[in-house]
Amino acid sequence: MISPDVKLGQRVSIPQPDLVNLYGCEIGDGTKIGAFVEIQRGSSIGARCKISTHSFVCEGVTVEDEVFVGHGVMFTNDRFPRAARAGVMLEGGDWEVMQTVVRRGASVGSGATILPGIIIGVDAMVGAGAVVVSDVPDYAIVVGCPARVVGDVRTRDAQ
Amino acid sequence: MISPDVKLGQRVSIPQPDLVNLYGCEIGDGTKIGAFVEIQRGSSIGARCKISTHSFVCEGVTVEDEVFVGHGVMFTNDRFPRAARAGVMLEGGDWEVMQTVVRRGASVGSGATILPGIIIGVDAMVGAGAVVVSDVPDYAIVVGCPARVVGDVRTRDAQ
Amino acid sequence: MISPDVKLGQRVSIPQPDLVNLYGCEIGDGTKIGAFVEIQRGSSIGARCKISTHSFVCEGVTVEDEVFVGHGVMFTNDRFPRAARAGVMLEGGDWEVMQTVVRRGASVGSGATILPGIIIGVDAMVGAGAVVVSDVPDYAIVVGCPARVVGDVRTRDAQ
User: Fold this and answer.
1) ipTM rounded to 2 decimals
2) Which residues contact C94 (CB under 8 A, 6 or more apart)?
3) Domains by residue range for chain B, with CATH
4) Is the pLDDT of residue C158 over 50?
5) What's residue B91's pLDDT?
6) Which residues, other chains included, contact A117 with Cβ-Cβ below 8 Å and sequence gap of 6+?
7) Is B75 in a helix, a strand, or coil?
8) CB A21 to CB B107 under 8 A?
9) Stretch C73-94: mean pLDDT
10) How many C-beta neighbours within 10 Å does residue A63 have?
């Protein structure tokens, strides 16, 4: 299910278009999107990214170029989500959408959860299963719940 | 895929009916259900709830009214799951289904995992990525793995 | 979506074939596979297993007989995943696929994340929501992030 209002770049690869749910978003050139992915209105994915199966990208998320989003990654945009207030369902516009940015070249490991309003830095690496509750510096490796810095990808790459 | 045996209330919103799997469950009035959600036989969802994408609600789970279930939330009902015993697949009825209740107005953050047999209290807030292994008191805010109480929504709401 | 190149055993149960994504893998006799599951090329599932909804089994994973894989379980095969290098998308073959084995009779709880290159021992029990970063001994019960041994299923079974 790819809504007609999705802005798809060149050579975007979506091998299972019937098993995704994309609407109102922008997808850059050459990006690959796996099965069971939802990307919401008001989000943006850069060029040459991988958005792996079972991941959810919500409104307010900007993913820059060449970012790896693993499997089952959950982004969020509301620090205090509620279904209803005073008996009335909350709709878009009823809460503040916090902005999240994943900078160029970063990787978000499978099963990670990203709290709202986070910046994940350039080339940073978020470990699988991490729960990210604060900004991740450029080049940092973070793991755990809550995620903490345990290394630097420049050192790791040099090993 | 919405099985004919699902009891749907009035004005239930399921924008992607081909991308959900609902069977043998009850869904209350005005509730919204996202893509890639499975709700099993023997579970019940109240009125004016949001069950967000990628979540799984199993047999034995009762979700009261106006509950927010985030994205990728996993409920469970078996403390010691096994596929087979003595070479024979286990079927429903071969294990004790523990009962979980999410009380009115509570929120369960995205990526949370709820162990079996849990009560999540009225208006309580389970943080994104939390692993809930014990009951959550009414109005409590819990986060982490295992989830621990870190605040009270009444104080937070008053801020 | 079950690709013609999947080797299906006898009496494999896939109640929602339109809501799975299986390709290039092998599935043993009597195994059950839930909705929203992806099983990739180059992986193998044994006989009489349960692969529950929302789980992802990647290349390099071998699941032996009678294994329970809960809901929303994420396997991984790359310790340092990237989307691209020097402006070019990485493809299969561009990284080392680490091998993971889940031994006969083991259970992996819902919401668990399994880091690459792990062995989960015979009859072992991985708790719901665990992040498994090192091998799990035969019969061990592990929980938490990172997962640590907290018990032995033989003692538990004897209770």
Assistant:
1) 0.96
2) C85
3) 7-78+97-158 (2.160.10.10)
4) no
5) 87
6) A79, A98, A99, A100
7) strand
8) no
9) 93
10) 30
